[in-house]
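Fig. S4 source data, part A: sequence.
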Amino acid sequence: MAATIRCDVAIAGAGLAGSLLALALAARHPALDVRLIDSDHRIGGDHVWSFFGSDIADADRWLLTPLIGHAWRDYDVAFPAHRRTIAATYYSIESTRLDQVVRQALPERALLLDRKVLATSTTAVVFADGDRIEAKGVIDARGAGDVSELDLGWQKFVGRLLRVPGGHDVARPMVMDATVSQIDGYRFLYCLPFDAERVFVEDTYYSESPTLNVRSVARRIDAYAAQRDWQGVEDAGHQERGVLPVAMGGDFETYWTSGGARVAKVGMRAGLFHPTTGYSLPDAVRSATAIAAQTDFSGLGLHGLTHDLARTSWDGRNFYRLLDRMLFRAAEPEERYRVLERFYRLDPRLIGRFYAGHSTMSDKARVLVGKPPVPIGRAIRALAGGGRA
């Protein structure tokens, strides 16, 4: 016989955005009856998330501090004609730590894992087995809505944690090593030294296609390790893959509705991601703390709040979508690295504001000024060819 579970707030999706929201609500409203739901048995899946210190407002750092597993004072970038160490803090979170912290913060009854969600509404969640949740408010955090409503390129990646007996030569995060061959669009390697022997290596592409050949890319990570002369390399038990949207335009309201017309949303489902990087962690923190600062947890109240957050974010990021059009539509795939090579010669503070999605008018002018590293005619056409709002 189907069961009905009643609560104050139901969060569908225990990925990064849903989990951070659950943690924020537990911290700010401990009496609130929250349920965190996911089809997986793990919270956060199997991921490594990284962010710059400047991505997160000082007032919001409390939410991430218990989750951080690795921290560095600076990071490197490398291009064929430019290498640089940038003095800016960089952090990483592993999903195993997120899982642990969420389980400690929430009562056992709050976690509804291994439960497939069939549908959500403003105040209800229906499970595939016929059970349902009746809540004062529902927030959907299950991933992207109908991406066909957006004009997209793709950032796709395969990451592997490697163990190098005797040690590797990565002193600090290599956020972008674009000295590698340019295959399937703009390609770079990303390396995080977790300790003296363990290094997380990710092979990433900016590509027109979302198709990802995991085996082929994983083999290229082996080739990269050999190129760096790492001896006796072993897999250290973690591999992940992903395909992130890079937004050039689209119809925000239609996209929002595709994920549930009157349902509150966070994360990718809300369109809360950086248009150029595809990363959603800074937005996940902002939305979690903003929701936790409220007292109205009704379905319609949560919908209005999250819609306004996402709409404001979308409207304020046209500059990044403009740059994405130049990257994908003005630059030849094998020459796209020049756009990033030029960008990484700029002031580190400007770079930090760019990743945080807080570029100033002066920043935007500085990024665009001068001769673009792409054919000027194609650059003009790409910059003029806006997307739907």
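Fig. S4 source data, part B ends here. The CA atoms of residues 210 and 373 lie 25 Å apart.
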